[in-house]
Design goal:
Layout (H helix, E strand, L loop, with lengths): L3 E5 L3 H12 L3 E5 L11 E3 L5 E3 L8 H9 L11 E3 L4 E5 L2 E5 L3 H11 L3 H23 L13 H6 L9 H8 L3 H8 L18 H8 L3 E3 L4 H14 L2 E3 L4 E7 L2 E7 L2 E4 L2 E4 L3 H8 L9 H6 L5 E9 L9 E4 L4 H9 L10 E4 L14 E9 L7 H19 L8 E7 L1 H8 L31 E3 L10 H17 L1
Parallel strand pairs: 1-2, 1-13, 2-9, 6-15, 13-19
Antiparallel strand pairs: 3-4, 5-8, 6-7, 10-11, 11-12, 14-17, 14-18, 15-16, 16-17
């Protein structure tokens, strides 16, 4: 039966939910509070010719993203050109650098040169990680997670031990590798999952396979090309889009969401899918008695980091800089401890630099450089211009040291910062988090915030605060799950 469905929010999960719900034959209306579609993956252009992706910059798990397009009879290549990055990225240590090659055979050689026997160990690690990837990304992440009984199947039961759900990732990596650089290299991907390696199940070695083995890619024109493509697909299915459309209230009648109040106007709907921040949706759009969770619940959750970001335009090329560079001269454990336990600004931070103009000349004027600095920080901490500037200066000094340059700031012609306050303002993000809920064992599957409202039978949630979790591919999957659940309603 055809339903009139509202989708709140236009990030990856919202676009995915809208596309799938429209394909199922429903009348779908998507509301976005900001002036552009894309949520955290928005893009902005400057007057002097720079184009900045505001959020995601790592194109991993290309097969998962491709499967979205395949579901609509399309291919990613119909919309944008995907190029492999070689090296995939560079890691900067206190005593040198390490370039991670695109070729897996070359990667094995690098491991072997770094630690005797590590090439063979990498094969063993990746064979195990591939199994987890294939089972995890097919059988696990596509469940709505209403009940543990969804996971009762001969295949999953047979896989349970091999999935290492009760082993922590830090211990798991050390079974294979002893060299500190290789350990950091293998632990780094789980930072995207929003927790320290010691608190993440070993299941998530699947990230290493989805990244290193399947490769790191870049969509020419930037990540917003994926947003544009998903919007195009949703529109072709019939989705109607509204920007500057701030949803103020979900109106409920007889235990059903009956309408939305959007910019002071009430619009009737049969089903609502909230791709907006879960906490904001419940605490601001619903009365207390109709929420799944109270404030105490949210205060006890372990959130993924926020981050301090700088978007920079330099009017000269920066030598010796790769597309992706990770600055790991300091201790990973110390930085993660200060994010998750101490919840303070880092004393010896790690950070990441993305320079897409090394690959894509369209994102910066000729002979100029587009640079994105990102430093993970604890959500909810004090955020001021003075603090931002202090870390900016430190990151630039380390960037100069690495690239063998000086006076970079003399050639800086564009600068914009983004941090905790901005995540709250633009995305209603709980405590200004950037990546959603941490994928710890106590916040996995059924233990995540529920995909459906337990008191309102036609209200569903999607995105990085519910199943399957944070990241671009999981958010796309989350939208598909929410649309399927809404379709059953």
């Amino acid at each position: 039966m055809k339903k009139k469905i509202a989708v709140i929010g236009s990030g990856f999960s919202g676009l995915s939910a809208a596309a799938y719900a429209s394909k199922q034959g429903h009348e779908v209306h998507l509301f976005e509070k900001n002036s552009e579609i894309g949520g955290r993956a928005r893009q902005f252009k400057t007057e002097n010719g720079y184009t900045f992706d505001m959020g995601p910059s790592w194109y991993w798990m290309p097969d998962i993203i491709e499967s979205f397009f395949n579901d609509f009879g399309s291919k990613a290549s119909d919309f944008y050109t995907l190029v492999p990055l070689d090296p995939q990225f560079e890691m900067v240590f206190s005593d040198g650098t390490m370039n991670i090659p695109h070729s897996y055979e070359e990667m094995k050689d690098l491991f072997e040169k770094t630690e005797t026997g590590a090439g063979k160990k990498l094969d063993e690690f990746m064979k195990d990680a591939q199994y987890k990837y294939e089972v995890g990304m097919q059988d696990f992440v596509n469940k709505p997670c209403h009940s543990w009984f969804e996971f009762v199947s001969p295949k999953i039961a047979k896989s349970a031990l091999k999935l290492d759900l009760l082993t922590n990732f830090q211990r798991f990596v050390r079974k294979y590798f002893k060299n500190p650089k290789l350990i950091v290299l293998m632990e780094f991907p789980v930072i995207f999952l929003g927790a320290a390696p010691k608190d993440i199940p070993a299941l998530y070695s699947l990230m290493n396979y989805g990244g290193y083995k399947l490769g790191t890619w870049y969509p020419m024109g930037g990540f917003s090309k994926i947003i544009d493509a998903m919007k195009n697909i949703a529109e072709k299915q019939g989705t109607r889009f509204y920007v500057n459309a701030d949803v103020k209230k979900i109106n409920v009648k007889d235990k059903k969401a009956s309408s939305l109040t959007v910019n002071q106007k009430e619009i009737d709907f049969d089903v609502v899918i909230a791709a907006s921040d879960y906490h904001h949706t419940e605490s601001k759009l619903l009365p207390e008695e109709l929420r799944n969770y109270n404030e105490e619940y949210w205060e006890k959750r372990i959130f993924a980091p926020s981050c301090l970001i700088f978007y920079l335009g330099f009017k000269e090329k920066i030598p010796n800089l790769k597309h992706h560079t990770l600055f790991f001269e300091n201790d990973l454990d110390l930085h993660t401890e200060e994010i998750y336990k101490d919840k303070k600004w880092p004393t010896k931070p790690l950070f990441y630099v993305c320079c897409p103009s090394k690959t894509d000349s369209s994102v910066a004027p000729e002979n100029c450089e587009n640079v994105f600095l990102l430093m993970p920080v604890a959500p909810g901490i004090e955020d001021s211009d003075e603090i931002r500037e202090k870390y900016f200066n430190e990151m630039v000094l380390r960037l100069e040291k690495h690239t063998g340059t000086s006076g970079l700031l003399q050639n800086l012609e564009y600068k914009r910062s983004y941090c905790v306050k901005d995540f709250k303002e633009d995305y209603n993000a709980y405590q200004g988090n950037a990546y959603g809920l941490a994928n710890t064992l106590s916040q996995t599957a059924v233990l995540k915030p529920s995909l459906r409202n337990k008191k309102i039978k036609n209200l569903f949630y999607t995105g990085q605060l519910t199943v399957p979790g944070p990241g671009v591919p999981p958010s796309i999957i989350s939208g598909k799950i929410a649309a399927n659940e809404a379709n059953k309603n």
